[in-house]
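Chapter review: from sequence to fold.
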Amino acid sequence: MPRAAHVPAATLEPVWVRSLLIGVALAFLALFLFVPLMAVFAEALKKGWDAYIAAILEEDALSAIKLTLITAAIAVPLNLIFGVAASWCIAKFDFRGKSFLLTLIDLPFSVSPVISGLIYVLLFGAQGWFGGWLIEHNIKILFAVPGIVLATIFVTFPFVARELIPLMQSQGSEEEEAALVLGASGWKTFWHVTLPNIKWGLLYGVILCNARAMGEFGAVSVVSGHIRGQTNTIPLQVEILYNEYQFSAAFAVASLLALLALVTLALKSFIEWRLRDTHEQFQEQGS
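The token string follows.
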């Protein structure tokens, strides 16, 4: 007599319980995601497409968009390098201080972004630890692009590492060890063995890191100085326009971040699907 297939406990719940839970989840999504996004686009287009395009192409807005893209273009690759190196060390090796390194990686998740910005003020401000030396050598960190980049790197550096660490730990190191035994160099092993196995998790972490880098407000607000046309990113430009009662322009610029959120959500769903397929393939190979 064949064994009965195992039925997950969740499927044994009454239909009304499942319907209630699904309804609650959809209600929360509608209330906290779809309705706010629709409101942003509705307000952005309230005065028509001409006003919307004019707000996006306004000189200060273009400067904010350019600075945001430059910041993300610097911060994301650096966090990519750090994330791969840190996850490789933690997943593949045992060493003293491993738990401490994990704690440091999680630090930006537990520290307010405003506090992160104030740390850089303490270090590089006029009265900070290195302020006198920077002034003497005419080097600007705060209220300039370097300070914005540094603050963005700090608040975003856990994203890539935190996606790769559990993925690399679950895959183990057998394939890398086999490649090394067969004579492959460390670089070839990483490029032809490790990277193909983590590519979707890596892309997932990069997408989340980029979305956070482009949308960061708190830390960047502290170190930027809010200089129009010079140190304002997109979130800071939205705040300035809103405080000046230019609501349509503020929502028009904010819609760029909303579009980024929608694209990130779509890519996130696609990559999660690919990661699930990859995980199932590893389970089949293991069995």
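Two observations follow directly from the output. DSSP finds 13 helices and no strands in the chain. Residues 247-286 form the longest helix (40 residues).
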